Amino acid sequence: MNESGSIDSSRRCVWTFHQVSCTSSDLSAAERATLLAILLSISAITIAGNILTIASILYFRQLQTRPNVLTLSLAVADLLVGLLIMPFNAMSSMHNCLFYGRVSCRVHTWLDYIFCTSSIVHLSCISFDRYVAISDPLRYSDSVTHAALAAMLALSWFSFPIDGLVFMMQWNLVGLEEETRRSCPDDCEVILNLPYAVAITTCAFVLTMLLMALAYDRIYRLARVQSREINSLGAQVQKASSDGECLSKWNAMKRDHNATITLGIIIGIFIVIWMPYFVVSATEPMVGYQAGPVAWEVINWFTYLNSMANPILFAAFNMSYRWAFRLLVMCSAFRPGIRGVDLFNFMERPA
């Protein structure tokens, strides 16, 4: 970072040629370059993975199902995190500064809150959708209607932008005037007062985590029964391989079971990734804001890993997505008949 002017010795603030005042960085030029390369790599992987997810759902007919409407929307939210949030935060992490002014800091914080929270709510909606699909598959189409899907999408995208206005109006800083005076004006630090810290932790994490955990507990119990049925039906399929109806039912149950396992892993990763952020957010106002800038940078970037992890988990644990990604990456998706192929059983076909 190019610097000019004097350093405030009490707060170690520096004036840059951008005419902003930020905390001076302790990183050398080589350390900054290494950090930037790592963080931009995370951003690039997030962008590429979610573009593959979106392209797969839009292109392959087998993936164009009602549950995947939510998956597609989740991928859009995660893509926006990779495109609009991570690159700017990478620069901020490298220089301890956001060079685009204090209004842009508020807008960036607002968008960060919207996209990350939207991703969380999407996972809750996907858990509910999977619960309905597993618990009552015969009535799934009647329960998860187009109107219900639209309502879940609206909840995922439009409920939290209004709450995020708290950052734009800086209501989260009410009562924290002394804390804000200790930081440099353009550090773009996000500090939460106690009421808002408790509210955001409860609404955005505790309630969604409980909803997902309760839903998946029920899903897991049903999946164990389903697994036994799959094994039993698999034996029947081997004995009567010419029975098309039996084979079709077995494949459908395998796909549902596979999707259930994938969802369980995604929920587990979500809890592990987001737990540190919400624990620290809720306790910081109670202990006098003891977590340093470096700790917050690590915690923030840890949460962004969720947006990077979702496409990787789809590819790793869901056969249909794995083959869809592979066909797109290898530019084999445009061969005749590939768009309508049975991706779940594609391993039996030549690549």
From TrEMBL:
The keyword Transmembrane helix applies. Keywords: Cell membrane, G-protein coupled receptor, Membrane, Receptor, Transducer, Transmembrane, Transmembrane helix. The chain crosses the membrane at residues 35-60, 69-90, 110-128, 149-174, 194-216, 259-278, 298-317. Its main location: membrane. PROSITE patterns: G_PROTEIN_RECEP_F1_1, G_PROTEIN_RECEP_F1_2. InterPro entries: GPCR_Rhodpsn (IPR000276), GPCR_Rhodpsn_7TM (IPR017452). One of its GO terms (molecular function) is G protein-coupled receptor activity. One of its GO terms (cellular component) is plasma membrane. It is a multi-pass membrane protein. GO terms for biological process: adenylate cyclase-activating adrenergic receptor signaling pathway; positive regulation of MAPK cascade. Residues 49-314 form the G-protein coupled receptors family 1 profile domain. It is found in: Cell membrane. It comes from the Eukaryota. It holds the Pfam family 7tm_1. The keyword Transmembrane applies. Belongs to the G-protein coupled receptor 1 family. This is Trace amine-associated receptor 3721.TAAR351B.
